[in-house]
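Field reference: "sequence" (input) and "structure" (output). Example, Bifunctional NAD(P)H-hydrate repair enzyme:
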Amino acid sequence: MIRAHSVETVRAAEAQAMAGLPEGELMQRAAGGLAEVAAARLEDSEGSTVVGLVGSGDNGGDTLYAVAELADAGYACAVVVLADGGRDALRQEALETAEDAGTIVHVAADDEEAATQVVAEADLVLDGIVGIGGRPGLQPRAARLVDAIDDDAWVIAVDVASGLDPSGETGEDDAVWADETVTFSTAKPAHLLPAGEAATGRLTVVDIGLDLSEAVAAVERLDYDDVALLWPVPGAGDDKYSRGVLGVVAGSEAYPGAAVLTTTAAAEAGVGMLRYVGSPTPVGLVHAAVPEAVIGTGQVQAWAVGPGLPAEEPEPSGHSQLAAARVALASDLPVVVDAGGLELVDGPRPAPTVLTPHAGELARLLTRLGQGSAGSAPEVTTDDVGADPLAHARRLADLTGATVLLKGATTLVVTPGHPVRSQADAPPWLATAGAGDVLTGVIGALLAAGLEPHDAASLGALVHGVAADRVSGGGPLRALAVAHGIRPTVRDLLARGRTAPV
Ligand SMILES: NC(=O)C1=CN([C@@H]2O[C@H](COP(=O)(O)OP(=O)(O)OC[C@H]3O[C@@H](n4cnc5c(N)ncnc54)[C@H](O)[C@@H]3O)[C@@H](O)[C@H]2O)[C@@H](O)CC1
Ligand SMILES: [K+]
């Protein structure tokens, strides 16, 4: 699992580490790790010129010491001072070390033209304008210099891409767009959340010795090795019932395929048993495509409700299906609710619940629930959710007490009382009709096996994304192929867990 810690947590760990170390030791470690990564990238790209953009804080200090090491190693190095107050505002010892090693110093406020030229010519740029002490946005001069960076240059953000909100709460267009971020001891929320992830680029964590083992993470991301830890694997004493029975209420005369996709994915995820509830056309299709499924209601351990369910415009043949959906939602069993099923959600349920909206569905649901509780809450739009996905997912989680899985290039899983999970495993090709139905089937299978909603949703998102990646192989995919990719993906991820060193 990748964990990101808040700025406050990192600063506390830093203070604790510094208490037992000589002054400046942490910065030396940070700068040393940074210089090592930079040198490796220069070697790979046969680059020779380095520019550090430096601000007044410790982020600038890290950068100055790293540039000094690169200058010592023979690279042609310059720094561009962006701190208000120029040279005097920098850490003097760090500046002297860089200059002694042969670094040329330009003060942007004194000669912006010369500074712009040196930036434009660099093969590698170290962004040390601001780090975790930064406020969102760049000052105009910094923005102009960042604009001057050559498209072919390798841009390394030191700790956090300058201009981002380190907490990843608010998005910011005016930020350094890094190819890589070198951060220290732990990821920061901005690296893993939609508001900052794209500007972060590749994330490289350099260990500087902060102890965060007991610290609560602000954001988590499951990785491949977590599958073996979390995936429900049957034991010798299990039978189909003990492994979990999933009831699927999905598909309709208008959208019969959703039933096939959801049940196929649940079967591929290895559910103990499947029950399917629907109208005649999808029943026929499920019968043919997933012969393992039992048609009709019966005892289940969890429900998957909603893909292809026209809850707003019920079909004449779908009344008993809609009634089954309402019974499932009113039950004390775990439920994953998607698409049409979300129209039936009217507040908290007393049992484990996963809601899987995309941005538009989340906006509609918040508008509806917000109006219900506050009387005159303003309408929430899809654009509102797009601009601030985490806050809106949190709002729905708070209103319903449910786990909210907000789909997107980065999928967020928000459960009250848990660190946010953020998964970015899928290729953009997965943005295709039916992909959500597959995800619902996988999460349903995991809930039926007894996983907590937070784990079921994030593990489901991971496996769904990895399966899509494998199926795509860099090209188009279709949702049914992703559903069929779930089984080999889980098998290989479990095998990876068995062979991983203990
Ligand atoms: N906390 C830690 O554990 C460690 C921190 N280190 C480095 O120290 C950094 C944090 O240093 P600081 O706390 O000095 O803070 P920063 O270096 O992030 O920047 C703070 C300074 O920038 C100014 N500023 C804030 N937002 C700005 C903006 N948008 N535009 C222009 N100026 C802005 C502030 O007024 C302040 O003077 C980390 O990101 C990391 O690079 C490392 O040296 C090693 C360990
Ligand atoms: K930075």
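The CA atoms of residues 13 and 222 lie 23 Å apart.
The first strand starts at residue 2 and ends at 4.
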